[in-house]
Amino acid sequence: MTELERTAVADSTGVAGGLAGTTPRNYPFGRHRLDPDPLYAQLRREQPVCPVQLPYGRPAWLVTTHELSKLVLSDPRFSRAATLEGDNPRESPVDYVQFAESIMSMDPPKHTRIRQLVGKAFTPRRVEALRPRAWKIADDLIDDMTAAGPPADLVASFSLAFPAIVLCELLGIPEADRYQFRRLTAGMVSTSTGSWEEQEQILMNLFTYLDGLFAQRRLVPGDDLLTGLVQARDDEDKLTETELLFLGMALLVAGYETTANQITNMVYTLLIHPRQLDLLRARPELMPQAVEELQRYIVLGNAVNPRNATVDIQLGDVLIRAGEPVLCGLTAASRDESVFDRPEELDITRQSNPHLGFGHGPHFCLGAHLARMELQVSLEAILSGLPGLRIVAPENELAWLDGTLMRGLIAFPLSWDAP
Fold first, then answer.
1. Structure pTM?
2. Which residue in 114, 153, 95, 186 sits closest to 399, CA to CA?
3. Which residue ranges make up each domain of the chain?
4. Which pLDDT tens digit goes with each residue over 340-362?
5. Residue 62's beta-bridge partner residues?
6. N or C: which end of the chain has fewer CB within 10 A?
7. From CA 171, how far away is CA 187, in angstroms rounded?
8. Superfamily of domain 3-415
C-alpha cells in the first residue's frame, strides 16, 4: 500500500482523534513580503496536519504537504458543499463563497454542470486566440509608460489595468467600468472591513452592479461571456438567477485580483533575482517555464476555502473526524522537499514542476489557461519594452498589502533606460 493509500483509509477502529482537545495555532501565520513563514516548513516536517484557529469561525486542520494537499483537494470525502452547514474558518466576518448557489461551495455533479457552462470560454484554443489582443493591450500600456517617461508605478500603470481590460473584453464589460469593478473586487478580498454589515453591503453592491450588466445583455446581447451566461439562464434554463449572480462574482474576483497582484509580484521577484532575470532575457523561450516556477515560488495568499470531512479519515498520523474542516496550505505544499528539488530556490529552468498554485482536483482554477497567458504576455511586454528595468525605492520603503487575502505591493516604483 502506498503512503497516499494509507493516509486515505477511513478509520473505524475508535482511535482517538479529532479537533476536540487540541490546542490550535493562530492562523494565518506572519507575513514578510512574499516569503512564506518558516513555520510552514517546520510543520511540514514535524506536524503536517496541524490544528489552527483563524480570526473567525471554528478551528480547522491545516495540511502542509504536497501529497496530503492533493488528496484533500481531490478526494470526494472532503466536501465543499458540506461547509454550508457550519461556522467556517475564515479571515473576515463574512464568508463570501459560503452560499449554496456559489460554484465555490458546490461538489460534483452540481459543480460540474455550472463549470461546463463557463469552461468553454477558457479552453487552451480560445485563450490562445485572445493572445494577439492581449499583446496589443500590453503594448499600449507600455507605450503610455514610455511616453510619460520614468519613473512610474507599475501597479497603477500596468498591473491593475492590463487584466482589467482583458477581462472587460472577455466578459463584455464597458472598459470605463474597470475602475468601478476594481473597487468592488478589492472589497471582496478585504479582511479588514470593520463589520459584518459593511462586508454584506460590499456583496450587495457587487450584486447590484452585476444585475445591471445582466439587464443590459438581455436588452442588447453581445458576443461575450456574460451574454452566453444570460442566455444559458433565460433560454436554456441551465442556471438560476442567483447562480448567475454568484458565477459573475466569481469570474470578476478570481479573474482579476489574483492576476493583477501576480504581475507585480513576478516582476518584483525577478528583479531581486538578477541571475534568473538575465537568463530569461537571454532565453525568452523559457517564459512559460518561468511563469510556472514563479507561480510555485510566490506566496499569493493563505489557505482558504475549507473542505469538511464527510466521514472519519486518517491523514498521516491524524484522524480527521466527520464534519471537521480541513485547509490546504498550498504555499507549504509548493515548497515540499519530497516533491521539488531545491524548493527554496527560484529556478526558471525547472523541468518537473507539479505546483499547486492553481489548485488541484474539481476546483482547479477555471481560468488557469487565461492567467498563464496573461502573465506570460505581461512579463514579456514589461521586460522587452522597459530595458534596464530597476526598482527606484529602497526595499524598506516598499509598501505591502495588509488586511487582504492577497499578497502584493501597494505601489511599485520603477525606472528604466529611456531611449
1. 0.90
2. 153
3. 3-415
4. 999 999 999 999 899 999 999 99
5. 50, 327
6. C
7. 20
8. Cytochrome P450 (1.10.630.10)
